[in-house]
Design goal:
By secondary structure, the protein is of the alpha/beta class. It has 13 helices and 12 strands. The protein has 2 domains: 168 residues, Response regulator (Rossmann fold, 3-Layer(aba) Sandwich); 146 residues, 3-Layer(aba) Sandwich (Rossmann fold). Strands 7-6-8-9-10-11-12 form a 7-stranded mixed sheet, sandwiched between helices. Strand 3, helix 4 and strand 4 form a beta-alpha-beta unit. The protein is elongated.
Length: 328
Amino acid sequence: MQRREFITLLGGAAAVWPLTARAQQPDQMRRIGVLIGFADNDPEGQARAKAFQQKLQDLGLTDGHNVRIEYRWIIDPDRIPALAAELVHLTPDVILAYGNPVLAALRRETRSIPIVFVQVTNPVGGGFVASLAHPGGNITGFTNFEFAIGGKWLETLKEIAPDTRRVAVILNPENPTASGYLGAIEAMAPSLGVQVTPTAGRDAADIERAIEAFAGAPDGGVIVLPDLIAFFNRELFVALAARHRLPAVYPVRLFAAAGGLLSYGVDQINQSRQAASYIDRILKGEKPADLPVQAPTKFELVINLKTAKALGLTVPPQLLARADEVIE
């Protein structure tokens, strides 16, 4: 190698090395914000965060190495607006939002930072995206349930507890998606010979009063609609259902894992993995407006046999055969 070429090469390397060093500094990392509806010590929230981070790592994005993940955990649902504002103030490159209330709060704070959502019902009706195929703004993601699943919850309740004649549907009246699920349940009820009672559950006291009152008559059952309030109070639901010997159907696995009779719904952990794929694509330059909102592809039926036995219920073989998980 001639002297002039060697000096040129050396000069080029000197120019590259500082850039490389700077690129590895924390300040140059891409930043991902996450607003998730669980406390930081909740095993369910930790499982979703772990699945999300593992998928990111599979895609070459490791927290603390080439990305920085800023979590905001929700201990109190009333704190969601403040946490959303705090996260947006950090100006992350993209935000992961869990659930309708979280997405609504973030949308009020920013129309420019890309947002990927999971576990959101009816994003078009909620005004979050223009359409599923063409979201059209800074938001895209993965939907939670179609309202029609409400009828499936009622059918499954009757299948595991055929003597059920009255059903309390526990809902948060402030959740705009509740009416859609309730409508599907009420439409199915006459064909199954069931009387439906919509019951407000805004907080723990509400939930306890409602179930205590409903349990006074025989042949009752319960359906709990998806909502952050319900998730925060899952152990209370399970305890009250056990105390009053009420068969209950829940929308996600975390209730059955806590001792609930049965859950049927979207695989929430899988949606965390899917969200990581969209975030990776956005960080590589794709726009949320061009990434279609995706419907759920993986549902799971979870049956708690121990709880069924405690309630004196025999799980039909055909229902047991359909179960994705049986808790013994």
